[in-house]
Specification:
By secondary structure, the chain is α+β, with helices and mostly antiparallel strands. The protein has seven helices and eight strands, in the order αααβββαβααββββα. Strands 1, 2, 3, 4, 5, 6, 7 and 8 form an eight-stranded mixed beta sheet that branches.
């Protein structure tokens, strides 16, 4: 079966993916400043919503997850979406989960002709079955807007947005979900046009994702 061949990675390849995920929390791979660097330049109001788990989360013993990040706002670049995915990947790896490689997930999406926008629970479950994972975490930027002003010879960006995430099992049931929104967040990051603020929103939501059941 073609789908099964996609997920047969060597142990060495999995090792290197694990390393990349573990450093993803504090550093963006698209040329933006790391969150630690820009944190002092961020200001704004964060609405601290948490992940909530359903009754089946513990009983299903979720171990291996595929993460799919998407922009449903139509305002975020591919790099910004990848930055959000990296944040979740780093946090979930730190919480004890094994993750499907991004390249495998993208290959499955290409194979079955899906696009990373407004993905349905049924589509996520289909991807999960091919990847042979326990569940799929769909992370969506549902709202994002930016503005900018000139200050002391540099552009200062103000951004606000909402990130929603839901964990879907292979039966299309939602096992956990969370939403995190922000009011205007200011950052001096010029390379990301304010998308660095998304990193802060994603980090707060990913941090509240439940630890892997023991």
């Amino acid at each position: 079966m073609k789908g099964k061949s996609i997920v047969q990675l060597s142990e060495l390849k999995r090792f290197f993916f694990g390393i990349m995920f573990s450093v993803a929390i504090g550093f963006s791979t698209i040329g933006c400043q790391s969150l630690d660097t820009i944190q002092s330049g961020l200001s704004g109001v964060m609405h601290r919503d948490q992940f909530k788990t359903g009754p089946d989360f513990l009983s299903l013993e979720i171990r291996r997850i595929a993460i799919i990040a998407q922009d449903d706002s139509g305002e975020v670049s591919d790099g910004g979406v990848r930055m959000v995915e990296d944040v979740f990947s780093g946090h979930l790896t730190g919480k004890g989960y094994t993750l499907a490689a991004r390249s495998d997930t993208s290959a499955v999406e290409d194979e079955i002709g899906l696009q990373r926008t407004e993905m349905t629970d049924a589509e996520a479950a289909e991807i999960g079955k091919i990847l042979q994972v326990d569940a799929v975490l769909v992370v969506s930027v549902t709202r994002f807007s930016t503005s900018r002003r000139r200050s002391e010879g540099r552009w200062l960006y103000s951004a606000e947005g909402t990130i929603a995430a839901r964990l879907i099992d292979l039966n299309r049931d939602i096992l956990a979900s969370g939403v995190r929104s922000s009011g205007p967040i200011s950052t001096s990051s010029t390379s990301c046009r304010g998308e660095a603020a998304l990193q802060s929103i994603a980090r707060g939501l990913a941090r509240s994702f439940p630890d892997r059941p023991q």
